[in-house]
# Entry
Amino acid sequence: MKIDRALAPVGTLVTLSDRFEGDENPLGILSKGAVLIKDDEIVWVGKQDDVPSEFDLSEADIQDLSEDTVFPGFIDCHTHLVFGGSRANEFDMRVRGDSYLEILQAGGGINATVRMTREASFDELYDLGMRRLDAMLREGVTTVEAKSGYGLTLEGELRLLEVIQALNRDHVVDVVPTFLGAHTIPETFKTNPREYVDLVIHEMLPAVVERGLAEFCDIFCEEGVYDVETSREILEAARGRGLKLKVHADQLTASGGGRLAAELRATSAEHLEYLREEDIPAFKEAGTVAVLLPIAAMYLMMEKVPPVKSLLEQGVPVAFATDFNPGSAPCLSLLTTMTMAAILYRLPSDEVLRGVTVHAARAVGREARLGKVEAGFQADLAVFSVGDHRLVVTTFGGILPSRVMKRGRWASLSAPCEPIMTTL
Ligand SMILES: [Zn+2]
# Structure
């Protein structure tokens, strides 16, 4: 087989592959490794000296990365990528001591962003999205999940999902679309929330699915937003139409969203600060990924921490994501998120790396293709000029990849110099 690209030798190759795993080497690390790439796919991984002769390297682009560490491309598996405006004013309210729900009741929160997003044109939202993806790619992030949820009308939600579709089409980063029509109760339905639930189930969901605009359906299951029974109704309707499920669950109160996610065999449940210990076995049983969002917890100045140790001890896959959004996590940096996850949850860097590769791939339904450097996987790689892979997690800012590969091609890493938030 003629090989297009050969990375050999690689100083440290963090494969995350089961083939190279063991108690002593849980990340499947190879030194003096080699990666062979054909088109957009990895076709062979191993020790540099073991490359089989069946591979013809005569015309391959051979790169010597003997001073570098190569990771699978990182995956940001929970973002609210597309919105207009900013919510800088709310930060002052929060440091004064106002709670998340108090800010929501004062006209801030998600509904404020809904107003600002409605004022932004399709092109403005698209341009912001492109810049945000540029900034993420600059950190070695090659796949991003993106939710709607700032439209909250049929047209508004479809428009956001169409922006996400255009971003996925035009940007080198893959964007996984999630319909989050049930993000909050829109202001116009405050006195009759049931009417909005019916709109989500009977008008939005069919239109989203018919146009092929989403892979997942998500919901904000929380006291005062969508209770467990309403969440179940919406999620079951989404599943009935072929969407996979995610749940914003147990973030501010122990409202039972985590248990619901496991009962419905959701792909993932997010936040989980108030997840109850007794609900953890159901996660394991259902294969539901726990997606933890340390930036949001820190930004909301929460003291409660999810039961991370129990989740890991019981074999639940734990992923980490930025939760990029204007209110509770205005942070595009998955690298900062990784460092925060290690500190906030007292985790070794290897566990954090698993959480932004293999486990994050599972959280976006791409575990057969992404998150590992292994034959048959997509050639998405992040190359860092560091000798110790742990530095990428344990250094607080300042370390960026020297190169990023997406689908077998080196990406151009021009840093964005235009703003990623707008002022209205
Ligand atoms: Zn979120």
Observations:
- The chain has 15 helices and 15 strands.
